[in-house]
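To whoever picks this up:

The parser on our side crashed when reading a file containing two proteins. I've narrowed it down to the boundary between the first structure block and the second sequence. Both blocks are reproduced below exactly, byte for byte. First block:
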Amino acid sequence: MIRDAKSRNIRPYLATIPPMNPAACSPVCRGLAWSLVSGFNDNVRGLAASEAVPLVDVYQGFAGNLALVGPDGLHPSADGYAKIADLFLTTIKGTLEVPPAPNLSSLQRAPFAADKCRGSYVWYASRLEPPSRLAAPRLHSHCRVDGRRAGARGAPGTASGSSG
């Protein structure tokens, strides 16, 4: 199912199962089933890692709080379902949300190294694109280079001119 989802450009999420309450026997006792949960969850964690898909660790999120498990010892209580929803939301936010665009105070002003147009600057977000990774500078169309408008045929810095 994971590979099928990925092949359709769908991001799958895997989740561990919550703990079981071994003391609960309503309506039936489940024997030693609770003892299998930890091993099952280890397999889910391994699968998530090997397939590089996000894991929602419900078991860890319950932190041993059996009050989040309902009276049957198997299914979550209302608070348990709310906790699961919070865990999923946190994981989804952490894997799908794009960080907000930087505000102007996080931008740095850097001189355009090869720009012969006085007072021309390029703005870059230092967190996103350090100056060493900027492409070759492009001249603004209003700038003049060697008496010619930048971008004009044959002007330095254009495809038909030298890269002055």
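<<boundary where parser fails>>
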Amino acid sequence: MDDWDLSSDSSDQSDLNEPNEIDKELDLSKSDIDDQKLFAISKMLTNDKNIEMLDLSNNTFGDQGLGYLCDALIQNKTLQVLNLSFNDITEQGYMQLARTLGKNKGLKAVLAIPNDYSVLTPDVLDEFVKYLKNNTRLVALQLEIVYRDPRINAILERNADLDWPNIKKAIADIAIGLYPLDIPPYVVLEIIDNMGYKHLPEIKKIEILQKVQRFTKK
């Protein structure tokens, strides 16, 4: 039996087990959330111990609202996946997000695709590289749909290497139809799908991708 024989039964399982605990995902996408509404959400998030995935994509908040959220993210250690895509965040807002990720201790995946790619200036990307060097937890960061800065990818892969035992356990859970409790399925999907993670053989990668997608909206 090789190292990647993760399941005694590799056949397709139609009834995957869902988490039997309080819902850990909060989807607030397309909810007309402006800066003031995000202030209230951020205040709640500061000491929250339950929510692991927060989707704030396709709203109307800008740098001010993001600032409130960044203050909360420095304190929050529970949130693991955050989607900030398609909001009114400027170059300065992305700079602040980069600095915050250098201090955050919980997030494993961040999506922050802008409405206008021109805000992702070389200075912004340099700022992410600078501060992500201090972050050993984040393993997925999507700022653009296609292009990924190789310097950022190198940092994310370094972090995935450091967290490999937990990642492998999550993959093993998914392989037998269990919802992984330590690492959200979306994070596993990002690692396998977008990073082509080197520890996972190609044939096993395809099998796990098929199963992990049942736990995600992607």
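After patching the parser it read the second block fine. The beta strands are 25-27, 53-55, 81-83, 109-111, 140-142. The chain is about 45% helix and 5% strand.
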